[in-house]
Amino acid sequence: MIVVSDTSPLCYLILIGQQTLLQQLYGRVFIPPAVFDELSHPHSPESVQGWAAALPAWVEVLAPQHIADELAALDSGEAAAIALARDLQATVLLIDERTAVRFARSQGFLVTGILGVLVDAANSGLVSLADAFAALEQTNFHRSPTLFADLLKKHGSE
User: Fold this and answer.
1) What's the CATH code of the domain at 39?
2) pLDDT digits (tens, 9 = 90+) for 49-98
3) At 31, is the secondary structure helix, strand, or coil?
4) Tell me, what's the pLDDT at 158?
5) Domain count of the chain?
6) What is the pTM of this model?
7) Could you tell me the residue range of the domain that residue 85 belongs to?
8) I need a surface site. Which of 19, 67, 122, 123 has the fewest CB within 10 A?
9) Cα 133 versus chain centre, distance
10) How far, in Å, are 17, 24, 84 from residue 156 at the CA level?
């Protein structure tokens, strides 16, 4: 399985202390240099910067060969992640931002974000979905007021 990640899913997993779920679910994750730069940026949370400074062996930074002009409307990390996913013929693209998700899906990618990762991890018995959502509520993650409750109802509380 080839998995490419944008910044947001990684950042939120780090913030809630669940970044190893990616290794447990996917084994290895590729990120483009633009994503690494966003994670390392001085405005990123300290824990995220620290994680990027000591990048785990299961994360590989790899530059895309070419970023197509059609990706110019997206954030640089999103565009680079989609371009890298194209290059690697990725199985899964981890991305959260709506515009980038719509574009990636229109290109035929299987896309999931932080919530999909957490649901998959809960379904695999790796994490309590209720606990993960409670931790995510302590961050600046944007969502509708009922999203977590709806997902817990659909996927179970544990």
Assistant:
1) 3.40.50.1010
2) 999 999 999 999 999 998 888 888 888 899 999 999 999 999 999 998 98
3) strand
4) 46
5) 1
6) 0.90
7) 3-127
8) 123
9) 15
10) 21, 21, 34
